Amino acid sequence: MNFKREFLLFIALIVMFSACTCIYAADEPLKSQRWNELGNNKFLKGDMYSALEFFKNALEDDRNIDNLAGVAVNLNNIGTVYSRVHEYEKAISVFEKSVMINESLENKNELAINFNNIGNACVSLKKFDIALRYFKKAMDIANSLRDNELKALCYNNMGLFYKAKGSLDKALNYYNNALELNKKIDNLKGLATNYNNIASIHLSNGKLQEGLSTYFTALDLDKKSNNVLGLAAVLNNIASTYLRMKDNVNALDFYERAYLVNMGMNNKYETAKILEKIDNLKGKLQNGT
Question: Are the CB atoms for 234 and 215 separated by under 8 Å?
């Protein structure tokens, strides 16, 4: 059995499935919905700048028809893209505009998403006090709505918060809380994210084998849920772990798999970074190091 050929076929099927959402959206009654589907498709493929343009088109259309709920969603999507390309201040500014609309509409679920996104951007900027305030707001809403999926997301973000601050035990506790909730609701993507984050804690504690095993659990869940972005991330993490373990052969293998996934998403930035690692490892292996 040619594993890489089978793996490439698997990735191609996932990408084809993702593309189908774009085609389906063409029958939607509002232009903004079509733009959003196109934006989501590009976002899932890692093409952030194309996604941004589609989300901006959706925003303009929803403003033209005074669809405030749609405007709030589009602003949140635009902010998410800015966060992905590390423009955190700009992201926060856009998220805050979405917050104002969702507060006027009393849309609690969307507000919690806004608050989580602002919190994550603040963590990236090391504005930890502000981040914690927003995460607590999001958690208060999740508790009031008794929404386990939202609550699990809040727990996961609190884990990211404490890991960024270097409080690994607290971070692991929050990740495990998120894990238990996602198990209850059978949220495969959420579980994959939780296991991926738990693995990172094991690595930070020097438990490389335990971390590697946990990454493989996340990998299996990403495959089952057709989570292409998660799959790309965890393959890269597995490769990096093998590299830390000085297992260059397996590191190369998993970097090549990560490369295939990112190629399938047309994620040029990540593809270039991984290709550099692949070339470096091939050179080491040829030199017998």
Answer: yes
